[in-house]
Design a protein that fits this description.
2 copies of one chain form a homodimer. Chain A is α+β, with helices and mostly antiparallel strands. Chain A has 7 helices and 11 strands. A 4-stranded antiparallel sheet of chain A has the order 1-8-3-6. In chain A, strand 10 and strand 11 form a beta hairpin. The longest helix of chain A has 26 residues. At the A-B interface, helix 2 and helix 3 of A face helix 2 and helix 3 of B.
Chain lengths: 219, 219
């Protein structure tokens, strides 16, 4: 996958910057469950996900985890290169959740180009703002966590009522049931899908792990 | 207060960029408890705090609040200009917590200069990373919230033991008592100070709102 496909602003880099990045990039493969980055490891660089799935999470002293976000094909992992930005002062752990192929841009190369290229700096800003938004969403869910439980309850009730794990129902209708915007339902269902509880397809929601859903509803 | 004092990268802007920003800036005063920004208001622009204190918080549908961070003299408020970055997709509310004077840079002016200036884009990035770090810290506190309660309990116990609200004790010693790094104690004490529960000075901690501390310890 050429670098240009990862960076919509690729054409706004100078030929020298493009060459520098292209020459420095290397490919790495990680087996499922490999730890890719944590606070005690060296700064690896910027990761571009070619195939597979990465998970970013934080870890308490007692070993409890919270998933912050997941990264899929074509996603850029900024926090494996936290050494690039001094103001990132939190410890995040990144692991391969499936067998993954990634491209790695060394931190010093990325940093140098970002220092001189406003388009790359602004694009990096957008990635960070997007992850920031994910995290703010997570805080709201955690603090006012009724909605994930209410949605789990609703799905469990529907599967019992319809006597099938494959529900034909739109996100909008669920939103109407639960007094919530369609977007909120979609986002939470995607989160459930990431957690392996449901599988989404056009016009239907398949419950794939009913026990996990029950546990969420009634921990 | 000249703009150069807010932006350490001011000298790296071109004279044209400096002039554009300086010409566009305006001064505003907000009385204590004024709502400055929320999701339904127009994008005001970038706020630079001259004097006073702003509070950024999120709000649940039921009206519950969580303080995300506070802004003091010389701080830059990025999220009052969330229209500058499309990827910021969360609603934050900003209010004046004290009578405040702020400088306002119109969003389109800031956006234009950031688009062409790598130093300004990178500096904006650093501000965002720093706020991101605050929010990650908050998540950890919320999820694994034993420490704020433990610290509140410790301070209450000490005031009872010493029969004074003015404790002569270092953050390091508290850390030793609670099995935590000094930095963590300092950060939490500053949070308590922001919340009006204690007042910090060199070598001492004054408990200023014992009821609030008790409520935190045993809600």
């Amino acid at each position: 996958m050429p670098l240009a496909d990862y960076f919509p602003i690729w054409d706004k880099l100078t030929p020298a910057q493009q060459n520098k990045m292209a020459r420095s990039v290397c490919q790495k493969s990680f087996q499922k469950n490999t730890m890719i980055h944590n606070d005690s490891m060296d700064c690896m660089g910027l990761l571009l996900v070619s195939t597979g799935q990465l998970r970013a999470y934080i870890l308490s002293d007692e070993g409890r985890e919270i998933t912050i976000y997941r990264l899929f094909d074509m996603d850029i992992c900024l926090f494996s290169a936290s050494c690039i930005m001094h103001s990132i002062q939190f410890a995040i752990t990144i692991e391969a959740e499936k067998d993954s192929n990634v491209l790695v841009i060394p931190p010093e190369v990325y940093h140098q180009i970002m220092e001189e290229s406003a388009p790359l700096a602004n694009y990096t800003n957008e990635i960070m703002a997007s992850r920031f938004s994910d995290v703010m969403w997570l805080i709201e869910q955690i603090m006012w966590k009724s909605f994930d439980k209410r949605l789990a309850a609703f799905l469990l009730e529907e599967t019992a009522l319809e006597e099938t794990n494959s529900l034909k129902i739109t996100h909008e209708i669920i939103g109407n049931h639960l007094g919530t915007a369609r977007e909120v339902v979609t986002r939470m269902l995607r989160y459930f899908q990431n957690e392996g509880m449901v599988k989404l397809s056009r016009g239907s929601i398949e419950v794939t792990n009913i026990n996990k859903l029950k546990k969420l509803h009634n921990p």
